């Protein structure tokens, strides 16, 4: 990870399902949450639950620039203007000129570093800030150059209409799952092309087996078991917009909930290890760790997980008469949530006395996960 290029936006949106994340974390008003920042969507989604505080960290300063601009947009813009700045076509189309005006209204709220970053990228503002990451450009290549070789636009539209489970399964079997679909999917979502065009090659260091085969199986799940008409991630991949569904942080009903708690969010450019080294003690109760363990060796994963356990609240303080005592509480134990994409990571044997895997809950929520390219959701509870 030391050689990772941090000079550009890797993710202009967060590609983990916040609906699943929030149910997995079960945030309460006294929770202090730790979150990977990425583009900011899920750190903001955590605020909607009214926790005491959310701390978002990222090594990449360009990702924090994405978060900063979103925070300014929630604070200063209307809901419709927020969607326009992001660039989702659920808002009014053809708003390129308007987006620069919206950015100029947000700019005074930015730090000098974030303002300098966005000032130097007017094309990213004009296109909508949700379009400008390497991962989003990878999907754009698929949508523009590969998908037309597989299916005509009207068939893509038909897929996104959804329908009953039986209708979705029949459509996939009879109309969608052609030899062209399977062949070109395997080529485009291979380890080599994903490393070159989508994610950094170093992200695949600990991955074994066929990348494309695993992603294809999860894609079939998203097209049949889940309803495409309710899946904002699938819609963006296939249409470069949200057609009938939005991710959690961009839904109208969550806008004011997020805006009203912006003062509870802070962010830092730092690694998790560095942050925890300078902030010791049991202070965090909810952890959104994205898929960061994907990029670590098993030894480094175990070492970082041990630090996270040390920094987690392990019990609730209760008052009875004149005495105060600590009593473990299932509802108040710290929860750690993260995804595996291709490299398997879950609690190692050395930490099983301190971590309780919530495997049944994780599997239930994983089956509902609309960000379908992950292979596993992990939910773990710190017990001591």
Question: How would you briefly describe this protein structure?
Answer:
By secondary structure, this protein is of the alpha/beta class. The protein is built from 18 helices and nine strands.
Structural features, described:
- It is a single chain.
- This protein has 384 residues and is α/β, with parallel strands linked by helices.
- It contains 18 helices and nine strands.
- It has helices at 18-25, 41-47, 61-76, 79-86, 96-106, 112-119, 122-127, 134-150, 153-160, 165-176, 179-188, 191-198, 211-224, 232-239, 252-259, 272-278, 298-310, 359-366; strands at residues 32-36, 53-58, 265-269, 286-288, 316-320, 323-327, 335-340, 355-357, 376-382.
- The chain has a seven-stranded mixed sheet with strand order 3-2-1-4-7-9-8.
How would you describe this structure in keywords?
globular, alpha/beta, 9 strands, two-stranded antiparallel ribbon, seven-stranded mixed sheet, 384 residues, 18 helices
Report the principal-axis shape: globular
Question: How much of the polypeptide forms β-strand, as a percent range?
Answer: 5-15%
- Walk across the major sheet and give the strand order: 3-2-1-4-7-9-8
Number of strands: 9
Element string (H = helix, E = strand): HEHEHHHHHHHHHHHHHEHEHEEEEHE
Cα gyration radius (Å):
21 Å
Number of helices: 18
- Which percent bin holds the helix content? 40-55%
* Quaternary structure type: single chain
Which regions have little confidence, pLDDT < 50, spanning 5+ residues? 316-330
Mean pLDDT: 89
């Amino acid at each position: 990870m030391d050689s990772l290029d941090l000079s550009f936006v890797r993710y202009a949106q967060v590609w983990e399902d916040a609906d699943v994340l929030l149910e997995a974390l079960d945030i309460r008003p006294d929770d202090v949450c730790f979150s990977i920042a990425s583009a900011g969507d899920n750190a903001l989604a955590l605020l909607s639950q009214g926790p005491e505080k959310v701390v978002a960290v990222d090594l990449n300063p360009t990702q924090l620039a994405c978060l900063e601009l979103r925070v300014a947009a929630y604070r200063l813009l209307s809901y419709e203007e927020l969607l326009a700045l992001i660039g989702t076509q659920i808002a009014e189309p053809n708003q390129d000129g308007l987006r620069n005006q919206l950015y100029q209204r947000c700019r005074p709220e930015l730090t000098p570093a974030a303002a300098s970053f966005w000032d130097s990228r007017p094309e990213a503002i004009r296109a909508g800030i949700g379009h400008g990451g390497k991962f989003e450009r990878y999907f754009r290549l698929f949508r523009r150059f590969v998908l037309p070789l597989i299916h005509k636009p009207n068939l893509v539209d038909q897929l996104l209409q959804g329908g009953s489970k039986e209708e979705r399964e029949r459509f996939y079997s009879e109309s969608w799952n052609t030899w062209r679909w399977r062949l070109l999917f395997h080529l485009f979502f291979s380890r080599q092309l994903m490393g070159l065009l989508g994610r950094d090659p170093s992200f695949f260091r600990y991955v074994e087996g066929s990348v494309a085969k695993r992603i294809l199986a999860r894609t079939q799940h998203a097209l049949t078991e889940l309803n495409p008409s309710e899946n904002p991630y699938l819609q963006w991949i296939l249409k470069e917009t949200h057609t009938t569904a939005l991710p959690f942080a961009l839904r109208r009903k969550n806008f004011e909930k997020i805006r009203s708690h912006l003062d509870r969010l802070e962010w830092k450019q730092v690694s998790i290890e560095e942050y925890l080294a300078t902030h010791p003690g049991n202070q965090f109760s909810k952890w959104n760790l994205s898929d960061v363990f994907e990029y670590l060796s098993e030894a480094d994963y175990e070492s970082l997980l041990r630090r996270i356990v040390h920094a987690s609240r392990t019990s609730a303080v209760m008052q009875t008469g004149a005495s105060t005592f600590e009593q473990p509480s299932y509802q108040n134990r710290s929860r750690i949530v993260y995804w595996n994409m291709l490299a398997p990571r879950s609690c190692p044997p050395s930490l099983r006395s301190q971590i309780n895997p919530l495997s049944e809950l994780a599997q239930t929520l994983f089956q509902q996960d609309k960000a379908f390219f992950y292979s596993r959701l992990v939910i773990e509870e710190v017990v001591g």
